[in-house]
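Sample pair:
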Amino acid sequence: MGWSWKKVTKDIGTVVEKAATAWATQQAIAAVGALLFDTAAEGEEGFTNDTLVKLHDDYEKASNVLEQKAQIVDPPSANFIRPDVKGLMSRAKRLTAVWMDPIAVIDKAPQTYDMYRDLSIFLSLSGVPSTLEISPGHMEDTAAMISQAIFANAPLSFSALAGVTDPVSVIPFTVANHIKDCIIQVKHAYYDIPINARSPTGAWHSSINLQMTTNGRGCRGQKAEKLE
C-alpha cells in the first residue's frame, strides 16, 4: 500500500545519529535493559569496550523488558463482554520500536497527526477496524481513541531519573463496540531516550501490545485503505 512511518523507527542507529549526547542515549537504554538482565552475571563485560555492539545488545534487552511489561495476560473484563455473545476468539499483535520526536496526544491537534497516523498504520496492519460503533449509530475513530489514551503522557524524562529504579511507564486501555462483540485491548510500555538538551523528550522506546477479541462478526468497522 506504500505506507511509510513518520515517527516510528526500528533502527537504533537512526536514534544515535540524531543524538546530541550519545552517552546519555546509551545510558537510558542500558538502564532499562538492566531491569531484567544482569550483564555482569552473564559474562558480557567484553561488550563494554565496543560501544556500538553494547548499544545494540542493550537495545535488544530493553526491548525485551518493554515487551514483557506490555504483555496482555488477562482476557477482557466482564464489563466489556456480553454473556450471550458466543464464539469469541482473540488474536494479538505487537509493535516494538522507537518513536522519534514524540508528542503527547491530548486532542486532535494538527501537531499530533503523525503520532495518530503511525498508530493507524499499525492498527490497520493488525486487522483492527478504523471505526467502532460505541453507541447505536455513533461511530468513533479507533486510532484517535487509542492514541489519546496510550500517548496521553510523556514518560519521566531521563534527566529526572535520579533515584528512580524503573523508568518505564505502562498504560493499559480497553475499548469495545456497544454490542460488545468486538473488544480491543492495548497495553503500552515506554520510556524516554534523550536526544538533545533543547528537547524535553527526544524519543520514546516503546512496545505496544494489541489484543482484539471478536466472534468474527463484531469487528467489521470500515477499514482504512489508504492514509494520506
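The CA atoms of residues 186 and 210 lie 5 Å apart.
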